[in-house]
Amino acid sequence: MASNFFAELKRRNVLKVALTYTVIAWLLIQLALLPALEVPSWAIKTLAVLLIIGFITIVFISWLFEATPDGMKRTADISPTEVLPTWSRRKFTIFIVTTALLAAGLLVFELLWH
Hints:
By secondary structure, the chain is mainly alpha-helical. It has helices at residues 2-11, 14-32, 41-64, 89-113, and strands at 65-68, 71-74.
């Protein structure tokens, strides 16, 4: 049962969407925490709440809908054997690593700023 659920998450690209969103959200929070920007604490809290709401929304949407060459379609209307265009593993890895390096660069910048 659990393996079928994870296979379905993978087929619907929910895991990729969730990971991508998480990395970008983390990068945005790191950017907001830079002392040079002097972002007020209420703005950081608001950003965190919006990112959490956005995460829930984007995971829900990625479960229900699939991007096809003909536009967005409900996943229920697509046969399980239909091949959908996706990012290659290499492109996805490059995106995640690049975003993580940007976040690490922001962290180093923050440490050196003090």
